[in-house]
Amino acid sequence: MRRDSDRLRFEIEARDGGARAGVLYTAHGEVRTPAFIPLATKGTVRGLESEEVAGLGYELILGNTYHLFVSPGPDRIADADGLHEFMGWKRSLITDSGGFQVFSLAHGGVADEVKGSGRPGGDQGSVVSIGEEGVRFRSYKDGSSLFISPEVSMEVQAKLGSDIALAFDECTPYHADREYTAKSTERTHRWLERCLKWHGENGPERQAVFGIVQGGVHEDLRRESAQAVSEAGVDGLAIGGTLGRNKEEMREVLAFTAPLLPEEAPKHLLGIGEVDDLLAGIALGLDVFDCAVPTRLARHGVALVPDPGNRFRLDLRRAGWVGSRDSIVEGCPCAACKYHDRDYLSYLSRAEELTAVRLLCIHNLTYMHELTTHARTAITSGSFHSYTRRVLDGEAPWTTA
Fold this sequence. Notes:
9-stranded parallel sheet; 2 domains; 3-stranded antiparallel sheet
C-alpha cells in the first residue's frame, strides 16, 4: 500500500462494529464515506446534468473506461482537459479499467449472475482474444478491432484525468472452474504490476490507483489475491470478480474477503449497490459502492421504496396507480416526491416520456444518497446495527435517525 497524501488520503473518523465512517481526500475534494457512487458510464449520469447530480449531494461518480475508449475516444476528452471539464463535473471522479467489460463480452453479464440467473457465455463475437498481453475486441460502434492492455487502460484513464484509476483486471464468472479462476487471478496480479509500472512512469501525479482483489468464490484464491494486491504500490483496494451465483453466496464471499484487506485502506466494492447488499457491505467495513441499479430501474419505471418484501422496488408501469395521489415515498426530499404523485409518474413512464426517466433517476439516486448519509450518521452515533434493522424492516432511511 502507498501512503501518498498528494494523491489520496483516507481518514477513518468513527467506527461502529465493523462499519466505519471516513473521508476520502482526492485532488478534486472530499468524499464522505460510506458512499454510493452513481455511474456516469458515457460521461453522464443517465438523464441528469452534472450540476444536478452534485445538487443531490454526490461527491464521487464513476466513468466507464471501456465505453469512453470506444466513443468519443480518450484523445477527444483529453483535448477538453479531461473528463471533469468535458462533462462539467467539478467533484471527485473514479474510472474503471475496462476489465469488467472484458468479462461481460467474454463470459456474460454479472447483474443476472448475482441474482442467480447468470447466463454462461457472453457476446462471443465481440471478443477476439484474451491473452497475457491484453484483450482484443470489436467495437460495438463500428465493428473495428480494438485492443486494451494494462498499459492502454492506464493511458486511457490518464487522458480521462480521473482522481482514481482502477487497475486492469479480468472479472471471471461464477461458472468458470477453479483452474481457470486461479490462472486468471494470477494474470490479474501480473497486469497490476504492469499498470503500476506504466502509471509510475507516465501517469498523472495526483491520480491514485486502486488494485482489484479477484479469486472468484474460492477463499484461498481471495486470500492470495488480497495479499498480492495489498503488497503492491496501490492507493486503495477494490473487491471485484464473481461473488457467487446468488445473494447468499455473495455475502459469504464478502464475509471472508473483507477482513483480508488492510484496515487503513479505502475499500471499494465493485458493481454491488442494492439497498440490503450495501448495508451488509458497510457492516463489513467497506467504504464505497458503485452500481447501475438505481438508474437502470428508473429507465424501466421502477422506483426505490422502503419495501423489503418487494426488493425495495415499486413498479410504476404496472396498472393500478390511476388516481393515486400518493408520492412515491412519503417524506422523500426529491423533486419527484415533492411535486408529483404516483398517478402522474406512472402515466409518464408508461408513455415512455423522458421526463419519467429523469424524475425516477432523481428519486432513486436521492434514496441511495439518503441511505448512505444516514448510515454515516448512525455509525457516528453508534447505532448502525439498529439503523440497518429498521431499514430492512421497511422504514425509510430518513425516518430512522
